[in-house]
Design a protein that fits this description.
Helix content: 25-40%
CATH architecture of the largest domain: 3-Layer(aba) Sandwich
CATH superfamily of the largest domain: Crotonobetainyl-coa:carnitine coa-transferase, domain 1
CATH topology of the largest domain: Rossmann fold
Number of helices: 19
CATH class of the largest domain: Alpha Beta
Length: 443
């Protein structure tokens, strides 16, 4: 009889505090930058007990994403960029500070050919509600979904990859491809439609937007599968592919192609199917104006002092044909003249006063100083475990009225919680844990 068969399930949370709507859920993560760990971060912020499995001595590469900082020498300079000569336990990436918080770090060589590693992994699987991975080649490590369902029939398994797993269909060679965020944007159809028309090249969105979208879809799938497991006692696997997450947010692009043969092209900042909908140049910068539908259209033109009878919505702003008509082009010129005759703030105030959707492109500095963001509680402070200092980062979204999210601890050091997890969750004794050391299993 294998060890996991004798392991008693330990209710969650066993290590972290109780908070949020997902308290009672335990998640095992074997993944690294960016999609799967961010999905786990979202679950952790709302109360799930997340165990992040990291390779001994290596850890999640997210820990090493530039910029990497260390403690400064004075209050005037509390943090400075860390050079390569600084020991790993004295520096941390700013990305890890933001995304690693609330997680428990367990160092484990996840390879089922190592008997001790297999014991630990399956003992944890029995104690978890969710296993998330983005390693892609799990079978090579001796891990199969069937094996895990034998250990825990209620388990929710979330596979995150670039192109999906062949068990869910697809060309096996494609499923086997490695991927990063821009790869998903390109292969999922987003990069081609993002940016300005030819001769400008396609452009990918920054800030790992594909990874973050994939993570959001992953969380949604996990919660649906978890709900099903609660009702029926039946676990399942979910397959979350970067390319499909990207294609899913292309609005009507596929319907347009299949029904009309239209291949969506790049349009820059201009909305190609209605106006006003564009980023306009002002005296001192830029102002985005969007007014979809006749009511908002008329409010926008009235706010700018443009005659709505001269430029009826149906003829000048309602469709691709209207905005490219002679009268539609005249309207665009009128709006451009209005914008260039005032500053971004002056234009925004006039439009907002008339309930017209508009926005000045904000920098991170602008948002940090935003009274609205501050009043929303969007910036929080917590203690980073590597630096041992208070850091400040972005807080939570969405907000909840009864079961609020929380940050109970900053991002952990590598393997910080290994012994606590093995003891309190997997049921190992102190002597058994000591016996693992020095064998390349947990250290």
């Amino acid at each position: 009889m294998e060890r996991w068969q004798n392991v008693e399930r330990v209710p969650a949370p066993a290590i972290i505090p109780t908070y949020g709507p997902l308290s009672g859920m335990r998640v095992l993560l074997t993944g690294s930058v960016v999609a799967a760990p961010f999905a786990a971060s979202l679950l952790a912020e709302y109360g799930a007990e997340v165990i992040h499995v990291e390779r001994p001595k290596v850890g999640d590469p997210y820990r090493g994403q530039s910029p990497i900082i260390m403690r400064g020498s004075s209050d005037k300079e509390p943090f400075v960029i860390a050079g390569p000569e600084i020991p790993a336990d004295q520096k941390v990436s700013t990305a890890w500070i933001q995304e690693g918080r609330n997680k428990l770090s367990l160092t484990l060589e996840v390879n089922m050919k190592i008997p001790e590693a297999r014991e630990i992994f399956l003992s944890l699987i029995k104690n978890c509600d969710v296993w998330m991975e983005n390693m892609v080649w799990t079978e090579k490590l001796g891990i199969t979904d069937g094996m895990l369902f034998e250990v825990n029939p209620k388990l929710v398994i979330a596979h995150v990859s670039g192109f999906g797993r062949p068990q869910f269909g697809g060309v096996p060679e494609e499923c086997d491809r490695p991927s990063y965020d821009p790869i998903g944007q390109a292969e999922g159809g987003y990069m081609f439609v993002n940016g300005f028309p030819e001769p400008s090249p396609p452009s990918h969105a920054s800030s790992f937007i594909n990874d973050y979208l994939t993570a959001s879809f992953c969380v949604n799938a996990i919660l649906m599968a978890f709900r099903h497991a609660e009702k029926t006692g039946e676990g399942q696997s979910v397959d979350v592919a970067q390319i499909e997450s990207m294609s899913k947010v292309l609005n009507d692009a596929f319907v347009n192609y299949f029904q009309l043969g239209i291949v969506r092209q790049r349009a820059g900042n201009r909305v190609p199917i209605f106006q006003p909908g564009n980023l306009f140049k002002t005296q001192d910068g830029y102002l985005y104006l969007g007014a979809f539908g006749p009511a908002v259209y008329n409010r926008a033109l009235t706010a700018m002092g443009i005659d709505t009878e001269k430029f009826p919505h149906a003829e000048a702003g309602s469709s691709r044909e209207a905005i490219n008509s002679e009268i539609g082009l005249q309207l665009n010129a009128e709006i451009e003249n209005w914008m260039t005759s005032r500053t971004s703030e002056e234009g925004a105030q006039q439009l907002k006063k008339n309930k017209v959707p508009c926005a000045i492109p904000k920098t991170i500095e602008d948002l940090a100083a935003s009274k609205h963001y501050q009043e929303r509680g969007n910036f929080i402070e917590y203690t980073d475990q590597t630096l041992g200092k208070t850091v400040k980062g972005f807080g939570f979204g969405p907000k909840m009225s009864r079961t609020s999210p929380d940050v109970w601890r900053g991002a952990p050091t590598l393997g910080q919680d290994t012994e606590a997890i093995l003891s309190k969750v997997a049921g190992y004794s102190k002597s058994e844990i000591e016996n693992f050391k020095g064998k390349g299993v947990i250290d």
